[in-house]
Each structure stands twice: as C-alpha cells, then as structure tokens.
C-alpha cells in the first residue's frame, strides 16, 4: 500500500522538479544581467514565478497527454516497455512541436494581416485573419489526427 502511495507522489512531483529546475536556471541567468537595483530584482523574481507556473502547467499537460496516449496503446505507464514509451514520447513531441509552431505562426499571421491591411475597411483584415486562422487550424488538426492514428505494432499487426 505504501509503495503505491510513494509511486503516486513521486510521479506527481516530476513536473514540479522540472519546472523548479528551469525556473532556477531562468532566475540565475537573469540575475547576472541585473545591476544591484531592488526593483529589477523584485520584477525578475515575479517573472520567474510566472515562468515557474507556466512550466509546471506545461509539464502537467505533457504528462497527461503521455498517459492518455499510453492508454490508447493499451498499456499503462508502469507496464509500458521502453520502446513503447519512447514511441509515445516521440509522437507526443511531434504533436506539441507542430502545435506550438503553428500557434506562433497563427499569431504572427494575424498580426501581419492587421498590420498590413489595417488601413483598409474592417472586413478585409478580419477576413484575411480568418483565412490564416483556418489554414493554421486545418494543418494542426490534420497533423494531430494523423499522429493519433499511428500506433505501436501489436501482436495482431505482425
């Protein structure tokens, strides 16, 4: 019974450790550039706290997506072999990288539409932004759907 509790506690603290490590590095690098001004140090500490929360949320979301993907493969995290776990991590990284990339591209594309076409009537930049949004959504959705349909070859597939 205590073994299961320990495993659950250790697994749920991994995102905290990773977020703490990256936040410490973020804070340490930022402190090197700050002269001895208390206001800058306090502002950097607040930004580090915000960075920690964002990293913790991102790690929790990634861990949740790994667990869901492992369930789709028919195994749980404790019983998954190294090859299946590596395969699942690889697929989830592909989905996350494509999602982040197209989200940043979508933001840049809509900002470009409003900056380049902002002097025209309202419907023109709004329509261009909608077109950029639809293209980014379709590419992201198709990629995620394709990756979700990839599965580890089971015994019946061989």
Distance between the termini: 38 Å
Uncertain spans = none
Which descriptor suits the 3D outline?
flat
Q: Helices and strands, in N-to-C order?
A: HHHH
Percentage of residues in DSSP E strands: under 5%
Q: What is the total number of structural domains? A: 2
Total helical segments: 4
Report the sheet with the most strands, covering strand number, pairing sense and barrel closure: none
Average pLDDT, all residues: 82
Q: Could you estimate the helical fraction of the residues in percent?
A: over 70%
The total of beta strands comes to 0
Radius of gyration from CA coordinates: 22 Å
Structural class: mainly alpha
Q: Oligomer, anyone?
A: single chain
Layout of secondary structure:
Layout: H1 2-33, H2 38-72, H3 82-117, H4 123-148
Helix pairs in contact: 1-2, 2-3, 3-4
Quick recap:
The chain is an all-alpha fold and 158 residues long.
Task: Describe the overall structure.
- With 158 residues, this protein is mostly helical.
- It has helices at residues 2-33, 38-72, 82-117, 123-148.
- It folds into two domains: 1-80, no CATH class; 81-158.
- The protein contains four helices and no strands.
- Helix 1 packs antiparallel against helix 2 (38-72), helix 2 (38-72) crosses helix 3 and helix 3 (82-117) runs antiparallel to helix 4.
- The longest helix is centred in the middle third of the chain and has 36 residues, at 82-117.
- The protein starts with a helix and ends in a 10-residue tail after the last helix.
